[in-house]
Amino acid sequence: MNLDFTDAQKSLQTEIIDFAAQHLNEGVEEREEKQQFDRSLWQKSGELKLPGLPVPECWGGRGLDVVSTMIALEALGYGCRDNGFSFAIGAHLLACVVPIWLYGNEDQKKNLLPSLCNGTWIIANAITESESGSDAFNMQTTAVKEGENYVLKGEKNFCSNAPVADLVLVYATTNQAKGMFGGISAFVLQKSLGHFEVGSKVNKMGLHTSLMSSVFFDNIVLSSTDLLGKEGGGAVMFTKSMIWERIGLSAVHLGTLQRLLKETIQLVKKRKKAAGRNKEGNFQAISHQLADLKVELEAARHLVFHAAYLLQNKKSADLYASMAKLKSSELYKKGTMTLLQIHNKMGNTHPKELIRTFKDATASTVYSGSSEIQKNIIAKRLKI
Ligand SMILES: Cc1cc2nc3c(=O)[nH]c(=O)nc-3n(C[C@H](O)[C@H](O)[C@H](O)COP(=O)(O)OP(=O)(O)OC[C@H]3O[C@@H](n4cnc5c(N)ncnc54)[C@H](O)[C@@H]3O)c2cc1C
Q1: Which CATH architecture has domain 7-122?
Q2: Which one, of 159, 2, 161, 163, lies nearest residue 171 by Cα?
């Protein structure tokens, strides 16, 4: 994969970085402290179609190819200092909007996608339950067929965006015997129709501006028009959306890490200059840590963009998506910790944004499939 982006891709990068700096960063520390989601920022991001980057323009999206979508998400991570906001965009777009675009029928695309892409609506993905997380398809939520309708019953946990969601994409068992091999189906539910209730806000360690809660379905009668794709097609759809999400969230995280690395290098250079020539040797340990981080970052970026290239070219991308996710999320955690230590060594003991980002990064090795799950996928592909 060539990381020498085209002029159009470079101007996309600049556009998104500038947009984030201008519109998304102000007040982040206050929102963070109050655990607030600012819907006006979401609406603003709709002007650039950030919530619908790869969706074709005819359905209200920005119409980017896969690689350009990942370039845009990397730029969002780089420019936006509100990691919760970038994560909320990623969860909405990659786990929900993409499957609606790829598997929805004409009516669903026409009725749902424009408002999901232009910042009007927010959608949450609901698959995790109290007894099923990594083994996501082992779910208790059921959608039982009654005539032409389905009756949905169950409870989902840890749903990002749910407290502010207009829609929920939920996965339910429609055939217990078939399980993940044709027994899981996906439905798009609307808050305005009373299709779901949400629980209270989950108090997370990080990502405070991305709100999360449980979602409840109490014998909700759904029509077959609420079914996304075909009955029994849910497992395939979810697996596909996770390939998008693993690549896309990795791109966001690596964008963030690149900016933090750049800012730390600027600080080290300033301190080195102030210390003078005779203290230059004191900075060698720090410069090696920064050099190591740069190498790992570029290696991770190559995995991310190679996975994007495979997905774009309709080749099997699951192995590279898992390798990219494993490498990027572990590096996100390790890298922010390294940068935090470097700041501390230089007397900057309270780098607020780094402390916050380190806390945000801890969840990255859990969501979208934990690191152990990525290793299981990689090992399976190695036929171990
Ligand atoms: C910030 C955040 C946002 C989230 N957003 C959403 C969302 O929008 N929608 C949604 O539905 N869910 C969401 N989740 C839930 C997330 O998908 C689950 O937390 C995740 O799948 C892990 O499930 P679990 O927490 O039940 O852990 P478990 O599956 O119980 O795993 C516990 C530990 O065991 C390990 N483990 C489990 N199975 C295996 C195995 N087979 N082999 C080796 N190790 C294993 C795991 O790696 C982990 O370390 C979110 C989670 C977080 C932290």
Answers
A1: Orthogonal Bundle (1.10)
A2: 159
